[in-house]
Structure formats: structure tokens, C-alpha cells
């Protein structure tokens, strides 16, 4: 893949996870729930759902991912963490809605 599609994909996942995380934080009155959700639920579900268990082991499957896949996951995680940090700073700033 070229640089521009990878950059667009990374920014898209960052913005998507930031937005979803921000809304979840507002609705559930939590701070770090989206980051935990991303690491404990979303990543394992995605990895498990595309893994062909008959063809390869888990380690072979994880090593078959390319750099684009890891960059996308890291930017999604960064968006989820930054949404928690933003909510935390807004609460410290006195905003009761968050």
C-alpha cells in the first residue's frame, strides 16, 4: 500500500475510536472504558474472527499481519486513549456534563 492510503486509514481509525470513545465516556460516566474495551474485546475479536484455525497456528497468524494492520490498530488504540484523557481533562476543568 502507498503512503496516502495508509495515512488516511490511520487517521480514520483514530478519529473513529476517539469519537466512539468520547460518546461512550459521556454516556457511561467512565474515563478509560473505551481503551480497555479496545484492548480486551475489539482486538481479540478481530484477530479471532479472521483466523483460519485449520491452516495455521495463532503465532503464524499474528506474524502474517503487515505493518499497515499494526499501524491501524495502534492509531485506533491512541484514539481510544486520547478520548479518555480528553474526558479526564474536561472533568478536571469543571465540566459536569462529562
Q: Could you explain how this protein is built, in words?
A:
With 98 residues, this protein is an all-alpha fold. The protein has four helices and no strands. It has helices at residues 3-28, 33-49, 58-63, 67-92. Helix 1 packs parallel to helix 4 (67-92) and helix 2 (33-49) packs antiparallel against helix 4. It is elongated and about 55 Å long. The protein starts with a helix and ends in a 6-residue tail after the last helix. The model has no long low-confidence stretch (mean pLDDT 88).
Q: What would a concise description of this structure say?
A:
By secondary structure, the chain is an all-alpha fold. 77% of the residues lie in helices and 0% in strands.
Overall pLDDT metric? 88
Number of helices: 4
Structural class: mainly alpha
> What are the low-pLDDT stretches, counting only 5+ consecutive residues below 50?
none
Q: What are the secondary-structure elements, in order, as H or E? A: HHHH
User: Biggest β-sheet, characterized?
Assistant: none
**Helix coverage percent:** over 70%
Roughly how many Å apart are the termini?
39 Å
Task: Based on Cα principal axes, name the global outline.
Answer: elongated
> In what range is the share of β-strand residues?
under 5%
Radius of gyration over all CA atoms, rounded? 16 Å
Number of strands: 0
Topology of this structure?
Blueprint: H1 3-28, H2 33-49, H3 58-63, H4 67-92
Helix pairs in contact: 1-4, 2-4
Amino acid at each position: 500500500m502507498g503512503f496516502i492510503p495508509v495515512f488516511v486509514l490511520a487517521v480514520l481509525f483514530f478519529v473513529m475510536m476517539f469519537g466512539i470513545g468520547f460518546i461512550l465516556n459521556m454516556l457511561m460516566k467512565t474515563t478509560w472504558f473505551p481503551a480497555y474495551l479496545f484492548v480486551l474485546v475489539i482486538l481479540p475479536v478481530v484477530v479471532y474472527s479472521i483466523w483460519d484455525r485449520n491452516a495455521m497456528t495463532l503465532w503464524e497468524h499474528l506474524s502474517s499481519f503487515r505493518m499497515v494492520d499494526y499501524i491501524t490498530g495502534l492509531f485506533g488504540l491512541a484514539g481510544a486513549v486520547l478520548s479518555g484523557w480528553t474526558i479526564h481533562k474536561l472533568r478536571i476543568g469543571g465540566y459536569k456534563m462529562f
